[in-house]
Amino acid sequence: MTEAQHLRDRGDADSPAELDLDGVSKAYGDTLAVRDITAYVPAGKVSVIVGPSGCGKSTLLRIISGLDSPSDGSVSFNGVVVDGVPDGLAMVFQDYSRSLFPWMRVDSNIAFPLKRVPREERAARVQEAIDAVGLNGKEKLYPWQMSGGMQQRVAIARALACHPKLLLMDEPYASVDAQTRAELEDLLLKIQAEKNITVLVVTHDIDESVYLADHIIVLSKPPSVVAETIEVDLARPRDHVVTKTDPRFVEIRGHVTRMLRGASVSA
Ligand SMILES: Nc1ncnc2c1ncn2[C@@H]1O[C@H](COP(=O)(O)OP(=O)(O)OP(=O)(O)O)[C@@H](O)[C@H]1O
Asked: Ligand 1: residues whose CB is within 6 Å?
């Protein structure tokens, strides 16, 4: 068996990551933000977390990314308990204006996390990421010379250049207009299918959750638990008109809406 095959069999090479959340709780002083969250994020799929405001979605992403630690329970990344930022994880935040460096051009912003990668490979990865998000010709612009949607493409390209096995996205499209949001949703689905990455998205937008997801993790009111995990059995590739008029889409959207509005998401 070659080294590459060995690594791949262990899930260490190009294969997407899986995540296991086992009884995760997080308290901030006297405030219990999440309690006993047990959930599975399968490899090579799009999982989406939805829940009422303040239910601890961002807290969970911080714990998964190793930026914060749980008060109880654990998160495993490919079977290894997370106790720091795992290799193979990249994150995209809502606020691109704070995550991109305004004094760096697009190509330098994308190359920034690749400092330890040899120069030729770094250039190839930057080009590959630019191609993936359709930023060709914009390499030498500064972020402030671009629209919000284009800036978020830069942030996504920077994450992709790291060749992530898991892409975490915290409300990634909450700051762009509806048309751009739809384009970026399709871009994410295209990239996820082409590159076979595990994607975990937090969103407030119920339409977006159903449109993107293979499965949706619905959190309850705080202190939060998993109220339900919903398998989204809609065909891929998805399309904003065809998918959103599918009776199954309407049914799942209605179910998630009722869960978020109703008593069924009470803890
Ligand atoms: N660093 C912190 N210190 C103290 N309390 C915190 C901290 N971070 C989050 N919290 C509290 O934990 C709870 C969950 O917050 P969190 O931001 O994770 O929820 P959320 O679901 O992402 O919220 P929203 O939907 O409004 O974005 C809230 O009560 C919040 O005030």
From this structure: 28, 31, 33, 51, 53-59, 222
Q: For residue 120, report the distance from its CA to the centre of ligand 1, in Å.
A: 42
Between CA 79 and CA 86 the distance in angstroms is: 12
Domain count, the chain: 2
DSSP annotation of 144 reads G
Q: Are residues 44 and 155 in the same domain?
A: no
The tokens describing 50, both together, are 């939805």
Question: In the structure encoding, which two tokens stand for residue 112, read together?
Answer: 């920034």
Q: Are 69 and 111 contained in the same domain?
A: no
Q: What is the CA radius of gyration of the chain?
A: 19
- Of all residues in the chain, what percent carry a pLDDT higher than 90? 80
Between 49 and 96, whose confidence is greater? Answer: 49
Taking a C-beta distance cutoff of 8 angstroms, is the pair 201, 49 a contact?
Answer: yes
In 3D space, the residue among 23, 53, 16 whose CA is nearest the CA of residue 37 turns out to be 23
Question: What is this model's ipTM?
Answer: 0.95
Pairing of strands 226-231, 166-170: unpaired
217-232: b (≥16 Cβ within 10 Å) or e? bbbbbbbbbbbeebeb
Q: Is 222 within 8 Å of 34 (Cβ atoms)?
A: yes
DSSP strand pairing (46-50 vs 215-219): parallel
How many whole angstroms from 225 Cα to the centroid of ligand 1?
Answer: 14
**Selection from 229, 220, 135 nearest residue 184 by Cα:** 135
The domain of 256 spans: 3-88+168-265
Among 97-101, 153-157, 233-237, the range scoring the smallest mean pLDDT is 97-101
Section 210-218 average pLDDT: 97
Amino acid type, 52:
P
Distance from the CA of 234 to the center of ligand 1, in angstroms? 32
AA letter at 247: P
